[in-house]
Design goal:
The structure holds two protein chains of two kinds. Chain A is mainly α. Chain A is built from eleven helices and two strands; from the N terminus they run ααααββααααααα. In chain A, strands 1-2 form a two-stranded antiparallel sheet. In chain A, helix 2 packs across helix 9. A seven-stranded mixed β-sheet of chain B has the order 9-8-10-11-12-15-16, sandwiched between helices. In chain B, strands 4-1-5-6-7 form a five-stranded parallel β-sheet, with helices on both faces. Classes of the chains: A mainly alpha, B alpha/beta.
């Protein structure tokens, strides 16, 4: 029982990191709450499905192209819509949520409904970790979940673009004074966030099937993790994902599985009461977020 | 002037013009002579179908209804007091199967069908029991006859009608209801598991929605009473994406049967995990994801050996009545796949039941159609269709000569094989090879 919790709590946490990291990245850099995050997650899954099943491309190429497409969608969303409303918080929320609705309801309207659209798993096998069976797709999820965090950290630490992202996250005005193009950097952040949503989709969807309604759930999970961790704080996102992931799993193991969602909502409420800025969020303060 | 103009035209042009006029005239004559037979000049009888169309129980019902309407219209339509009238269908998305959508939305959708689309009858949903119950008052207010065909498993539906007959007499249900399903259909299958393979330890896994929770409780009670051991009873939120904790518990507790009651597409994840863990327990129950013929390909065979209750016969190939396979083949021809799941055969039959009742009533007047439906006796796709005169619930049976029968299927080598009840069976129940080890 202990090892069940250890292993599957870890998997759940890694899944939450994957779902939330893109949302956190975009907010951290551009202060844009991207409520289209869940829709991009679902849309990328369907792009990969269409490239693989309809166009007939090899799966690895379908995955690659769909991730690039999700980045492209991010850039397009930023330049066509978000740039015009940037800084107007309510408009940002409404605009991004509306974009999400267009994607998700558009997919439904186009007939992508039900649970029969699936993506292949990396491997059908099962490994035993502490005598607990774990299918290989979940092993991949654990590895890639953390590899992705490490990659983003390296990007912000050692590349010019990453440092620009970091600068923007710390202080946009100061960054602009140093010659960083605010729009271009924000667009890169939205593109990266969208690509991260896409990567998450392509790792998580093969576990089950492509379902449009997942878009709404992923958005709620991403918001919960980011609120608890502190909006825009990457370290907070990782820690909150662990706290919530293990809390959810323990609720299933010792309590009742249907209280899982309650854990998420309670965590948001408790955070807003006790520490509104989350574990690491320092709202309205000029402190490093990355 | 015209004559002069024609006389100036080359002879070939005049000939072409002449033949063109003749062809057009003949075409118009043919069109007018054929039109009454094909489309019926009379006003159509409008059927309103309130369905949650993004979900299996919505779109398969829509397809079943449209198939029946097309067949009936092609055969000349409905005889309403000596006048042949076609059916037409108005489908509206109630979205009531979607999480978080309030019941009120379904009520508004039905009201729109009645007031704006001016439908004569309602067939299909709403699909969730809560929404269908809320719509009963609306049916009474507008005196609209409705036949519920999909979803709505709650016994509260027919009990409410029976207890308030004068108020709710316009509502009928042509599909099965959950208490009968559990007591008269699922329990005998559990007994078959025990008799054939010695399976006695059951892990109950249900979705956190009213009908599934209630079903879990009833199954738990009846299993215990019948001497089975319920090793665990878990409720999962809609949209749950990891069933490992429950499945690992099953493994620890040596469960023989996983009783699953879920209408969410994530059931696919459960079956995939069950397959990858190679659990010895046999999945059995109500799993919307595993009902569909496409599920085999979608799950890459993860559904193999899963036993699924299709609620009404004919939702998968079966040999119940001569009409069953005729319906299966017609559906396949029209929609390029076999009937997909719960709601397909019952929605199709509801249109035929309505046709039968209207023709016997000789009018579209609601009260007379209600009386005609109460007296219906029609041998249909899944057996004899009759309604209880008080509760308006279709009379169920395991004998198609007595009432409407169910269809229990098992996925075997990519096919949905009906194995119970014996009246519709086309194959035998099997255990996964690893379960025998």
């Amino acid at each position: 029982m202990f090892y069940d919790i250890l292993v599957y709590g870890f998997i759940q946490s890694a899944a939450l990191i994957l779902m939330a990291f893109g949302f956190s990245l975009v907010y951290g850099v551009s202060r844009l709450p991207n409520f289209a995050h869940g829709a991009i997650y679902v849309f990328t899954g369907f792009i990969a499905w269409a490239l693989f099943n309809t166009v007939g491309l090899p799966y690895w190429l379908s995955v690659l192209l769909s991730i690039l497409a999700s980045g492209g969608i991010g850039v397009l969303i930023y330049y066509v819509i978000l740039r015009r409303v940037r800084g107007m918080e309510v408009s940002e929320v409404i605009a991004t949520y509306a974009i999400g609705l267009v994607f998700l309801e558009g997919l439904r309207y186009a007939g992508f409904r039900g649970g029969t659209y699936t993506l292949p798993v990396a491997s059908d096998g099962v490994s035993f970790i502490f005598d607990v069976p774990v299918d290989h797709q979940r092993v991949l999820l654990m590895i890639l979940g953390f590899a992705m965090v490490a990659l983003i950290w390296l990007l912000t630490k050692y590349t010019r673009m990453g440092r620009a992202l970091k600068g923007m996250a710390q202080d946009e005005r100061a960054a602009m004074m140093l010659g960083i193009d605010s729009d271009a950097t924000a667009a890169v952040a939205v593109a990266l966030g969208s690509m991260l949503a896409g990567v998450a989709a392509l790792i998580i969807f093969p576990l089950g099937s492509l379902v449009v309604e997942e878009g709404y759930k992923v958005l709620i999970y991403a918001i919960a993790v980011c609120v608890v961790g502190g909006l825009g704080s990457w370290a907070g996102t990782v820690i909150a994902a662990f706290v919530l992931g293990y809390s959810q799993y323990m609720t299933v193991a010792y309590g009742k599985p249907h209280f899982q969602m309650v854990v998420m909502l309670l965590a948001i409420i408790a955070t807003l009461i006790v520490r509104p800025s989350g574990f690491f969020g320092k709202q309205k303060q000029l402190e490093e977020r990355v | 002037m015209q004559i002069a103009f024609y006389s100036l035209m080359p002879k070939e042009d005049t000939m072409i013009r002449h033949y063109t006029s003749v062809i057009i005239a003949l075409g118009l004559a043919l069109l007018f002579s054929v039109t009454p037979q094909l489309t019926n000049a009379a006003d159509p009888i409008k059927l309103g179908a309130p369905l949650s169309t993004a979900f299996l129980y919505g779109w398969d019902a829509e397809r079943g209804i449209k198939l029946a309407v097309e067949e009936i219209n092609a055969a000349g339509g409905v005889d309403v007091g000596g006048e042949k009238r076609p059916f037409s269908v108005e489908v509206i998305d109630t979205r009531d199967l979607e999480p978080g959508v309030p019941v009120d939305d379904a009520i508004k959708a039905v009201e729109k069908l009645i007031l704006q689309k001016e439908v004569d009858f309602l067939v299909g949903g709403p699909v969730r029991s809560e929404a269908a119950l809320a719509v009963l008052d609306l049916l009474n207010k507008h005196k609209k006859v409705s036949i519920v065909t999909t979803g709505v498993l709650s016994p509260a539906y027919h009990k409410t009608i029976a207890e308030n007959y004068d108020k709710y007499k316009y509502a009928f249900r042509i599909s099965n209801e959950i208490v009968n399903i559990i007591v008269k259909e699922m329990m005998p299958v559990f007994e078959k598991f025990r008799a054939d393979f010695g399976l006695e330890r059951v892990h109950i896994m249900v979705q956190d929605v009213a009908h599934a929770r209630k079903s879990g409780e009833v199954v738990d009670k009846f299993l215990t009473k019948a001497g089975f051991t319920v090793v665990s009873h878990d409720i999962y939120p809609t949209g749950n994406t990891d069933f490992a904790p429950g499945l690992l518990k099953s493994r620890r507790e040596n469960a023989d049967v996983l009783f699953i009651f879920m209408d969410m597409p994530e059931t696919a994840i459960l079956l995939k995990q069950w397959k990858s863990f190679k659990l010895k327990s046999l999945p059995f129950g109500f799993m919307s994801a595993a009902e569909q013929p496409d599920f085999w390909e979608a799950s890459k065979g993860a559904a193999e050996y899963a036993v699924v209750d299709m609620i009404n016969g004919g939702n998968a190939p079966a040999e119940i009545t001569p009409w069953t396979m005729k319906f299966v083949n017609a559906y396949k021809k029209m929609w390029n796949k076999e009937p997909e799941g719960y709601g397909t055969s019952s929605s199709y039959m509801a249109v035929y039941a309505l046709k039968d009742a209207i023709e016997r009533a000789g009018t579209l007047e609601s009260d007379k159609v209600v009386t005609a439906l109460e007296n219906i006796d029609l041998m249909g796709v899944y057996g004899r269709i009759r309604f209880d005169k008080k509760s308006h619930q279709v009379i169920p049976s395991t004998d198609p000569n007595e009432g409407a029968i169910t269809g229990m299927i098992q996925w075997q080598d990519g096919k949905r094989v009906t194995f119970w009840p014996a009246a519709g069976a086309v194959g035998e129940l099997m255990l996964p090879p690893w379960a025998k080890e």
